[in-house]
What does this fold into?
Amino acid sequence: MNDGWGALLEEAIGFRLGESFAGADVWRLLHARKSGEGDLRGHLLPLEPHEGLIIDKYGSAVVITAFQGGFEPLRLRGVLSRHLPVESLYYQPRFETWSTMVPPSLIWGSPRGPFVAAESRLRCLIDLERGFNPGIFLDTRPVRRYLEQGALRGMRVLNLFSYTCTMGICAMLGGAIHAVNVDSSRSSLNRGRENYAINGLRVDNRDFVRADVFSQLGYYQKKGMTFDAVVCDPPPRLPGRGDAVFQYELLWKKIEPVIGEGGIAIIITRDMRISADTFSSMFRPDGRLMLADRDLNPRNGSNPLFKAVVVKK
It folds into this structure.
């Protein structure tokens, strides 16, 4: 299996190096998951048995995440080193329940301490050994680029499930006049404050709200508070919130009342149980305008893992 992975990785690196990644030192090299179709753009690949693997580049470090056993990550070091300045190689197995939240482990090279990474205009603190995710979700790069380019210019933005607040930062860098970041994790919001400072943005504690997103949306609705735009990147599973379709239908019912008239929502999913067409249709039962953006949704596959919709109220 590893020889096949090596050939696939060579192809993926060639594709990535051929893209425009100027100003970025963090990016996804490869994302191949079981079943489905796709291309090399960080989504699904149709090749068998190449399934269940993510390879991410963080500066001079590479993190290999495996969703299936029987994989030897060190056998990919040669391929990586031929094309990239790799000084550290980390491995994160996520095929056992106990390992799903475990940070990646160093398997070759020198430990990579915390550092500030660049992705276009965004600067973000990365710590490979702090948690199961080092500080940025690389698959949402197209959305961050969309925001940086001014999609929410002049708007008041609500950033839900904000994690380390990179979406809010990119909205501000793209000309948004204000962003409120909501997440249930204190440590993620603290990292978000650091990221704001790194990007030269004013840190106001009122813009970092530690709360359950559903409860906070209810609070905003009760107070009659609205925003011009909502960015929502929820986890694939929301505990206690029912099945996948129900989760997003409930989420939309909560989000819609806090969007001002003429405002927009950008909603993201990585749930393989929901097709791109089904996901889009959830948010336009009354004929709401879907703003198609090819850059947000590379639709080379019938069901890409990463899906985003832009809904105008």
Observations:
- Confidence is low (pLDDT under 50) at residues 34-50, 287-295, 297-301.
